[in-house]
Transcriptional regulator, TetR family (Mycetocola reblochoni REB411), 223 residues
Amino acid sequence: MAAKKSEQTRERVQRAAFESLRQNGFDGTTMRGIADAAGIAPGGIYYYFRSKDDIVSALYVHVSERYRDQGQRVLDGERSFAARLRAVYLLGFDLVDDYHDFAGSFLGTAITPGGASNPFGGRAREAKTAAVSLFDDVVTGSDLRVSAELRAELPELLWGAFMAGMLFWAYDRSPGQRRTRELVDRVVPLIAELLAVSRLPFLKKQLREAIGVVQLITGADDA
C-alpha cells in the first residue's frame, strides 16, 4: 500500500512539473510552485527532482517513451520508407508542440556537458535509446534496401537528423511551426533518394566516412 501511494505521489509531482513547464516555461517554473501544485511540502519536491534540469530530463524520457509507443501506430500498414520516416518525424514534433515556448531554454540546458538532459549521454541515454529503437523499426518494416554496414548505423543517422530538425523547430516562429513541417516534407525524399543509391560502388568511400563521423559524434560520451 505504501509503495502504491509513493508511486501515485511521484506521478502527481511529475504531472505538476510537466504542466508547469508547459504553462510557465523553464525560467518561470519553480520547485516550490511544483510542490504547491502537487500538494506536498516544499522540501519534498527534492525527493523526486534534484533540480529543474532533472525535470527537463524526466520530460525528455517521458516524451521519448510516448514517441516509441505512438510511433508503432503510425507505422502500421505502411511499407514505404519515405512515408514511414515522414510520419515518425512529424509525430516527434507533434509530441513536443506544447513545449515550444520554452524550447530555447531546454536546448540551452540540454547542450550543457554532463547535463541531465544532454541527449548524447548521461541520464538521458534511456530516452535516446527509445528514440533510436523507433528509427530502427522505421527501417526494419520498410521497403528500403541498403548495405549491412549502413544498416547497422542507419537508426543513429536518422535520429541525428531528427535532432538537427529539433534545433530548427526550437527557433521556428512560423505559425504552428509550419516551416519545420515543410522542411520535413523536403528533406525526407532527399534522404530516401540518397539511401537508394548508397549501394553504388563509387560511393563506398564516402559512405564509410559518413558512418565514421556518426560514430564519432554519438560516441562522444563514451570516453
In short: The radius of gyration is 19 Å. The CA atoms of residues 81 and 140 lie 9 Å apart. The longest helix spans residues 2-28.
